[in-house]
Amino acid sequence: MSEQIMVDVRDLKKHFKKGSEVLKAVDGVSFQIRKGETFGLVGESGSGKSTVGRCLIRLYDYTGGEVYFDGQNLSNFGDKQLKPYRRRIQTIFQDPYSSLNPGMNVLELIGEPMDIHGIHMKANERKEFVAGLLKKVGLKEEHLYRYPHEFSGGQRQRISIARALSVRPDFVVCDEPISALDVSVQAQVVNMLEDLQAEFGLTYLFIAHDLSMVRHISDRIGVMYKGRLVEVAESDELYDNPLHPYTKALLSSIPIPDPRTASQNMAIKYEVPTAGDGAVPELREVSPGHFVADH
Ligand SMILES: Nc1ncnc2c1ncn2[C@@H]1O[C@H](COP(=O)(O)OP(=O)(O)OP(=O)(O)O)[C@@H](O)[C@H]1O
Ligand SMILES: [Mg+2]
Description:
Layout: E1 5-18, E2 21-34, E3 38-42, H1 49-56, E4 64-69, E5 72-73, H2 79-88, E6 89-92, H3 106-116, H4 123-136, H5 153-165, E7 171-175, H6 183-200, E8 203-207, H7 211-217, E9 220-225, E10 228-234, H8 235-240, H9 245-251, E11 284-287, E12 290-292
Parallel strand pairs: 3-8, 3-9, 6-7, 7-8
Antiparallel strand pairs: 1-2, 1-4, 4-5, 9-10, 10-12, 11-12
Helix pairs in contact: 3-5, 4-5, 5-6
The structure holds adenosine-5'-triphosphate (ATP) and magnesium ion.
């Protein structure tokens, strides 16, 4: 992993208006992801993880803050300026059932992002290229003309991954890419993501509920609570030496993986103590590379 910063998120805020109320889904989040690194983002449901991911790829405009990608501030870019970055930044979502158009075969599904980003090849070249990608994600050339309903959840996620990789991205936001899969295939898909990362020099943001999986794949991890990061550290350091009370609560409730419930069963009884004036503490570095927001 290099020291070069690929993604630099500075005081990111995304607030949603809900009637007369404002929901602060993300409220002042800062972190950096190095080139080639996997940065894990954990936290209970509703803590703002996906919203962070969506802001990075500008599916959402944000309320405040900046996102730098490979040294470029994308925050004020319009559609035209963003276009090359929308190729370089790809996403893999949780649900491989709804994210693939049922009316397209595998060759068309994987070719679609290539068309969008103007990666043109002759028909037979493209077929060979896509067949090569299929092999890399553990599928076969004979799958080229099949449709999503003919595949298992794990295979569909492999197709989604091939789709994302077809445009040669640098950075992939993996938003709970294995949560909807059977436990038996989760590890396979994670191992494959790691192999692909090494082969293509990818940088990952890996959003997950499953703490054992996120520890395995991540170099560093950020813990989100109510729209804020409460702790950031290298993976092993976070697990061996959690400092924030919320991280401790999260780690002590590592769920037993059950594909039917594991993704949503992490509600944790915990309130961040605020100072007397209600101020929320900022992240500060307490040992090299270990940041915590606590009084
Ligand atoms: N488009 C939207 N409009 C309004 N509110 C939203 C929108 N997207 C997210 N939210 C709200 O923002 C908060 C954070 O949601 P987000 O999806 O980022 O959480 P999450 O950490 O990814 O949760 P989960 O683990 O369940 O996926 C939630 O309260 C959610 O209801
Ligand atoms: Mg989410």
